[in-house]
Amino acid sequence: MQVRSSAVIYSGETALFLHGLLDREFSEISVTVPSGYNASHLKTDNVQVHYALKETYELGVCEVVSSSGNMVRVYDKERCICNLIMERKKVEMQNFQTAMKEYMSLKDKRTSGLIEYAKKLGIRDEVMKYVEVLV
Q: pLDDT tens track of the chain, all 135 residues?
């Protein structure tokens, strides 16, 4: 998908799975593109397209190896957790809890980076509620 569209960044449950924060595979592929991007060619039955402001679209982008062995652009774990908290009402409770517990149990988690992203995304107070309870 990223070969056809370089604007695509894997996000949501797809990114959580690629980072090992979810143990069951996603039902549809979640991607993020910048606001204003024409994503009509991406909207199929198994692709969910999210739009991000141009100012925050690239925030937390990294590369990981996909299950097929390819390097793919994906949001890092901290950005994934911020997105998860922003979308918590649209995510299955079990997936939300699993991803949060897995992230908080990581030895290499970057809590300061998580809070910095939360400030830039305007959700610092919401993220702090979870960090204070789970840390």
A: 777 788 999 999 999 999 999 988 777 899 999 999 998 888 776 889 999 999 999 999 999 998 889 999 999 999 999 999 999 999 999 999 999 999 999 999 999 999 999 999 999 999 999 888 875
For residue 65, the cross-strand partners are: 71
Are the beta carbons of 22 and 13 closer than 8 angstroms?
A: yes
0.85 exceeded by pTM? yes
According to DSSP, the residues that pair with 47 across neighbouring strands are 29
Rounded CA-CA distance 73/15 in Å is 9
Q: How far apart are CA 21 and CA 101, in angstroms?
A: 8
Phi, psi of 26 (to 5 degrees): -70, 150
Compute φ and ψ for 101, nearest 5 degrees: -65, -45
Q: Are 128 and 91 in contact (CB under 8 A)?
A: no
CA distance 47 to 10: 10
Phi, psi angles (nearest 5°) of residue 115: -70, -40
